[in-house]
Design brief:
Oligomer: single chain
Structural class: alpha/beta
Largest sheet: 7 strands, mixed
CATH superfamily of the largest domain: Type I PLP-dependent aspartate aminotransferase-like (Major domain)
Subunit structure: Homodimer.
Organism: Cellulomonas oligotrophica
Order of helices and strands: HEEHHHEHEHEHEHEHEEHHHHEHEEEH
Protein name: 8-amino-7-oxononanoate synthase
Distance between the termini: 69 Å
CATH topology of the largest domain: Aspartate Aminotransferase, domain 2
Bound molecules: 4'-deoxy-4'-aminopyridoxal-5'-phosphate
Number of domains: 2
Strand content: 5-15%
CATH class of the largest domain: Alpha Beta
Family: Belongs to the class-II pyridoxal-phosphate-dependent aminotransferase family. BioF subfamily.
């Protein structure tokens, strides 16, 4: 048996200045979390991990209380659509509840290939591969392709899953203030030559601010400086573009100009999982090498079939996309007319209402719930502490009447929490 490639070095034991508790459950950070939760439970409780009783669409029920829902990514209302539900049920009947192996071994089913072809068709890429989680996809792909000799230039607001992937890669990280494509170009010009590979990462729709990147400018900058470009389309596929094809379709960018389009199945596509789409050779390379895929059980039959059916329903019922965009514009205009601070939102179905301090955002969310509206508070560290917000996710299923009611309640709760509202309607940018 060959020995280890590197000799085992016996590291001398050194006394730790302050030994940590022997059991994980006794670590300081664990105790601190438990103490904070205990405090919250003694007080008014926390608006997290609420048990929703059934399907969540335009409305939801929590512990029997009916609420207007603005806290799910069910953008096209397909998570409970009869065709999507039936497809998941049929897949369970045919293939069982699990594929019980990694796809590269015995976990592959025809429905996986059908979904990958449908995703590639929707996005306009040569190929696509699906994985079991959106977060796992980002956290796995970045360290798979990039390492300590490389540079990753990213918008400061990219999702945690990308930030985790970048950190795990050991690449040098260059965060650019949100939305500043000009600073991406500047970073590439100044730093490109010192690194082996350079990746530029952005999102199709930013999940915190509800705005879009200047993708054409990023494509140009990446090409000019020999960098790769990756776009996380979690909130843009099934939202942007006439056919829901995402930011490339929306802005008229050739999908072939983006090296890697990543997305999730958990939002418009009504399931759970992630995907990577791009050039045929790259996707084939990933099928045989990406550890988050090769060493992980295949996406379940039900999840796979549900997303495939969602893509088909989106194609057959294009009015859903039109309603979604109409709702987003109606809600944004209504929020501005009531003097709310919606940051840089542009009328896509993620609309932030900036409150300020974290505690105020939690108080407003609690007030909304008491008045029958569910919207999540987003607080530090997800956003800077003075930028805490309520985040409203809209669906094609909301009626304008529901949107107006929610806006009126929100304005009232903001006033009650002492959050200033602009007296004159805020001009559309
Ligand atoms: N990327 C973005 C931009 C996200 O918002 C999310 C989750 N909300 C993810 C990736 C992770 O996807 P999933 O929840 O499907 O694991």
């Amino acid at each position: 048996v060959p020995g280890p490639a590197t000799p085992v070095i016996d590291v001398p034991e050194t006394a730790s200045p302050s030994p940590e508790p022997a059991r994980l459950a006794d670590l300081d950070e664990v105790r601190a979390t438990v103490a904070r939760l205990d405090d919250a439970v003694r007080g008014p409780g926390l608006p997290y991990y609420l048990p929703h009783d059934g399907r969540v669409g335009a409305t939801t029920s929590v512990g029997g209380q009916e609420l207007l829902s603005f806290s799910s990514y069910n953008y096209l209302g397909l998570a409970g659509h009869p065709r999507v539900v039936a497809a998941a049920q049929e897949a369970v009947e045919r293939y069982g509840t699990s594929v019980s192996a990694a796809r590269i071994l015995s976990g592959n089913r025809p429905v996986h290939t059908a979904l990958e072809e449908a995703i590639a068709g929707l996005l306009g890429t040569q190929d696509a591969v699906v994985l079991v989680g959106g977060h796992a996809t980002n956290a796995g792909i970045v360290p798979h392709l990039y390492g300590p000799d490389d540079l990753v230039v990213h918008d400061a607001l990219v999702h945690d899953s990308l930030q985790q992937g970048i950190a795990a890669s050991g690449a040098t990280r260059h965060a650019v203030p949100h939305g500043r494509a000009d600073l991406v170009e500047e970073a590439l010009r100044a730093r490109r030559h010192r690194f082996r590979r350079v990746l530029v990462v952005t999102e199709g729709v930013f999940s915190m601010d509800g705005d879009l990147p200047d993708l054409p400018a990023l494509v140009t900058a990446a090409r000019r400086h020999g960098a790769h470009l990756m776009v996380d389309e979690a909130h843009s596929v099934g939202v942007l573009g006439t056919h829901g094809g995402g930011i490339c379709e929306e802005l008229g960018v050739d999908p072939g100009d983006v090296d890697l389009l990543m997305g999730t199945l958990s939002k418009s596509l009504s399931s759970c999982g992630g995907y990577l789409a791009g050039h045929r050779s790259l996707v084939q390379h990933l099928r045989y090498t990406l550890s988050a895929l090769v060493f992980s059980a295949g996406l379940t039959p039900a999840n796979t079939a549900a997303s495939l059916a969602a893509i088909q329903v989106m194609r057959d019922e294009p009015e859903r996309l039109a309603r979604l965009r109409g709702n987003a514009e109606h809600f944004l205009a209504g929020a501005r007319a009531r003097g709310m601070d919606v940051g840089p939102a542009v009328g896509v179905p993620v609309v932030p209402v900036i409150v300020g301090e974290s505690q105020a955002a939690v108080a407003v969310a609690r007030g909304l719930a008491a008045h029958g509206v569910s919207a999540n508070p987003i607080v530090f560290p997800a956003v800077p502490d003075d930028q805490s917000r309520l985040r409203f996710f809209l669906t094609s299923e909301h009626t304008h009447d529901q949107l107006d009611r929610a806006l009126d309640v929100t304005a009232r709760c903001l006033r009650e929490a002492g959050v200033p509202l602009a007296t004159a309607p805020v001009e559309t940018a």
